[in-house]
Amino acid sequence: MYQTMTKKAAITVQKKDFNQGGFYVVVVVKTEDEACGGGLPYYPLNPDTPIEHGDRQKTLEVLVSPAISRTTYVGGMMFCLGVFLSFYIFALLIYCLEQWRRNKKEAGLLHSVGALNDETASLLGKSAIAQKYDGCGYGSLTDNSLVGSPDDCTDSPVSSAEASYSYTEKSLENLVSRPRLESLSSVEEDDYDTLTDIESDKNVIRTKKFLCVSDLARKDKRVMRKKYQIYFWNISTIAVFYALPVIQLVITYQTVVNVTGNQDICYYNFRCAHPLGSLSAFNNILSNLGYIMLGLLFLIIVLQRELSYNRNRMYTRGHLEECGIPKHFGLFYAMGTALMMEGLLSACYHVCPNYTNFQFDTSFMYMIAGLCMLKLYQKRHPDINASAYSAYACLAIVIFFSVLGVVFGKGNTIFWIVFSVIHIVFTLVLSTQLYYVGRWRLDSGIIRRILQVLYTDCVRQCSPPMYVDRMVLLVMGNIINWSLAAYGLIERPNDFASYLLAIGICNLLLYFAFYIIMKLRSGERILPAPLLCILCTSVVWGFALFFFFQGLSTWQKTPAESREHNRECILLGFFDDHDIWHFLSSIAMFGSFLVLLYLDDDLDEVERDKIYVF
Question: 210: domain range?
Answer without folding.
Answer: 1-91+201-385+506-614
